[in-house]
Amino acid sequence: MLYEQVEEATTFIRSQTDFQPQVGIILGTGLSRLAKEIELVASVPYADIPHFPISTAPSHKSQLLFGYLGRRPVVMMAGRFHYYEGYSMQQVTFPVRVMQRLGITRLLASNAAGGTRAELEMGDIVFIRDHINLLPDNPLRGPNDDRLGPRFPDMSQVYDRTFNARGMALAPQYHLRAHEGVYVALQGPNLETPAEYQFVHTIGGWVVGMSTVPEIIIARHMNLRAAVISVVSNKCYPPEAIGHVSVEDVIVAVDAVAPHLRQLVTQLVQAW
Description:
The chain is α/β, with parallel strands linked by helices. It has one domain: Rossmann fold (3-Layer(aba) Sandwich), CATH 3.40.50.1580. About 30% of the residues lie in helices and about 25% in strands. The protein is built from 6 helices and 9 strands; from the N terminus they run αββββαββαβαβαβα. The protein has helices at about 1-15, 90-100, 160-170, 195-200, 215-220, 245-270; strands at about 25, 40-45, 65-70, 70-80, 105-115, 125-135, 180-185, 205-210, 225-235. It has a 5-stranded mixed β-barrel with strand order 5-8-7-6-9, surrounded by 4 helices.
């Protein structure tokens, strides 16, 4: 059933555009302005695509954008889906499967996340080298369709470390403080308690958020090269640094670094 749904969605998109993307980009909370860098060829609203959910998160636009980022043909998700919105994990990750069928070989995801290391400041970026999945479900749960990927995908080398190394080297040119670290995924939608931030720090997490890991699992299942950039939207460690945070605060924090991040991502994607 899932395979047929992916094929149906792909066929519909192909009826709207014959553009051939090579890189898929998921624009996370506060990072929708990255879409301004694309030389737009076509856009397809999620509401028109068979079996696609519609994002309810603030700042998410709910459309697929096709075009060029620099010289690189890309498809951007202007709005992602979250488990906390009430969608199943298969729905959350459905667009990744469709983008793979459209031809992408690489997936770049972005997100805003809380920083759980003392050296992380609001506005820093973290290139993800690994993750810890604390979500209550897995997008691969249930019968496996071998046409989509293997039953037991290896997760030992999920993230593209060459992409990270290049990003770390280039970030200072764009006035960005960059790190490489571990992303921890929790369900949300509430922000974490001080005790939970302490827990994330203790188990090795650098940043904590409510997305990304399901999409990356599916990217690995479908043999896509994957990279993730997190923007530190609030300081969550040490405990005395924790303050009240709203979603509006998160968006403001990410918007402050968005112009520099857009330039960095454009250069990275062109060379990827």
